[in-house]
Amino acid sequence: MARALKVESRPGRYGSFGGQFVAPVLLPVLDRLEAGFHSAWGDPAFHAELTHLLNRFVGRPTPLFDIPAFPSRPGGARIVLKRDDLTFNGGNYANSAVGQCLLARRMGLSAVVTDTGSGQNGIATAAVAARFGMRCTIYMGARDAAAQPQAVKKMRLFGAKLEIVEDADRALSSATSAAIRHWMGHSDTDAYVAGAPIGPHPYPEMVAAFQQVIGKETRLQLVEGGVLPSAVLSAVGGGSSTVGLFSSFVSDPSIRLIAVEAAGSGESGAPNSARLSQGRRGIFHGAETLVLADAEGQILAANSIAPGLAYPGSAPQLADLVSRGRVETMTATDAEAQRAVRRLAETEGVLICLEAGHALAAAEHVARTMEPHEAVVVMTPSSGDKDIDILWQDA
Amino acid sequence: MAKHNPKRINRIDAMFARLRTENRKAFVTFTVASDPSFEESLARLKTFAASGIDLIEIGHPFSDPILDGATIQKANRRALAAGGNLRVTLDLCRAFRETDDRTPLILMGYSNPLVTMGYERFAEAAAAAGIDGLIAADFPLREADDLVKALAKHGLYMIPLAAPTLEARDFAVEKPGIGGFLYCIPVVGPTGGPSASKEVIAEAVERCRRQSSLPVMVGFGVKTPELAADVAKVADGVIVATALIDRFLEIERDLEGDIKSFQARVADTLTDYRHAIDAVKSA
């Protein structure tokens, strides 16, 4: 218990979460990466190239978009989407893929390796690697690959080598383990590209830095529109868009920050992905954080209709913000997320991914408790094109 | 529960002292507890000790053995399916100690079950079960202050993992609770990967010796009795894990459940390595 209350201030720690829980052979690699990242982050030329690519290759800035016809009942706060679904190649994952590939190239590495659940981080990394002429290896769980055949083809079109993982949950968690094993054996040539601000330091800090652009744009766009949001919501998978969006609002105590977790089928005892609200303190994939694990410390398989949310670990920064009470958690079920995505498509002509459907379903509940002059912002990390086969099943 | 007696010599230290007087090198292997069952695991530990193994590394099963290759991943899965976990692994060690108070036992595995149990509770229970040290694959010394303190209090060692690319501060740390030996990994990558050349191994051991006075044992990629002998020429001990697990599985398939012959063939296999390692001292 004493440990839980202790707040450390070492680099790479968010409160008592974070750290570098890796095979010691990776420590020099992480130390080099940390030095490389800090040098790049302080270099205006690096930022200039990053911004250029974010604007011209990724398609930023992305708009804020009102959806007045979406709520099923009149009244309540206005709901605004932050539309990273309008980027090219991998939604918001492109932000950190561009940043990390630029950094890898600057550090003299010739190849990148990553993992993907929904396919989005894989697509983002494969596209940037193609642009930079870097070799790209992507690990994807067999279950995810079967559910997202278009994403698999798209990564291959960009020239990436796809490794399908049959281990354990056959989903993101085992893909991540396999990618890290690959990296351990090839760290002299390959950079590991993290899709989310998870893993050992400096990954959480680095991915959060590359995703900050979401929050900065959103804040600026809200100010320009004269809107002060009452709440900001984002669905939490690995946490890349959530950390990115929340970063610009975390120091405004009047703005509620709500992390929406996948409840799976919603039946009690059925597997879900709610590790921020129901997880235990643990060490997983390189960091001390909140994880889905049993009483013996074995990792539990996460489950959600949205593959990008089905992951048993969490970003250490989010674990800290939730533990300190700055970030609230809500859950949405598979069915609620599907209904929200379909209703948005029917009423507004916008098809968002199932991951964002969880946040949208929660946002509708939150908006109902508010006044019409208030606004809530909902993160839309990517488009629903990848989920069409799940959303529309011919009878 | 018995309090740690600071005067009692850790079995790892006692083993190296004994081997030095005998002019021999240590032969170490690894097995995952409860693979394929608790009883079979216990029988295997006894066979190991009776067949020339000086120190046993016991893996506590984990759902996500991220630093292990296919062989040890599968061993973990079989062990979990048989009901294995950290608690059961401690039970297994306690059962082994009923008949063997000499062979050092080192617990090897991943950190999440340790965090879940709590470092203090874990260290106390491990000492009571007769465990002498801990190798935590994903728990570098720079993160391990609290864990090392708990281990020191109960007379256990955290065994540092040493790789040629590591800075001395990441393995050659002198502190109560850190010791036993250096686990030298001459190749990068998960367990069960390619072997390093004997020149690379000699260089890696030499580097360990320059930074630390602890005995040095070499693991990762030591597959054949010949390579084990080469390692024994330069190091204080040889760790053969994946190659033996693969070999034992082959024997198991050949014999189709004939347990008695299985233990005999396991003993024969270990004897081959033992002889190769022992032949080195006279060379």
Can you put this structure into words, describing what you see?
The complex is a heterodimer of chains A (395) and B (283). Chain A has two domains: 21-54 and 91-203, Rossmann fold (3-Layer(aba) Sandwich), CATH 3.40.50; 59-89 and 211-391, Rossmann fold, CATH 3.40.50. Helices cover 42% and strands 17% of the residues of chain A. Chain A has helices at residues 2-5, 27-41, 44-58, 93-106, 120-132, 142-147, 149-157, 172-186, 203-224, 240-246, 275-278, 316-323, 334-348, 354-368, 388-391; strands at residues 13-14, 17-18, 64-66, 78-83, 111-116, 135-141, 161-165, 190-192, 231-235, 256-262, 280-284, 287-291, 327-332, 375-380. Chain A has 395 residues and is α/β, with parallel strands linked by helices. Chain A is built from 15 helices and 14 strands. With 283 residues, chain B is an alpha/beta fold. Chain B has one domain (11-276): TIM Barrel (Alpha-Beta Barrel). Chain B contains eleven helices and nine strands. Chain B has a nine-stranded parallel β-sheet with strand order 5-4-3-2-1-9-8-7-6. In chain B, helix 7 (145-153) links the parallel strand 4 (133-136) and strand 5 (157-158). In chain B, helix 2 (38-50) packs parallel to helix 11. In chain B, 55% of the residues are buried. The A-B interface holds A 3, 19-25, 27-28, 167-168, 173-174, 177, 180-181, 184-185, 187, 280-286, 288, 291, 293, 295-299 and B 62-64, 66-67, 69, 73, 80, 85-87, 110-117, 137-143, 146, 160-163, 165-167, 170-171, 185, 188-190, 193.
Give a concise summary.
The complex is a heterodimer of chains A (395) and B (283). With 395 residues, chain A is α/β, with parallel strands linked by helices.
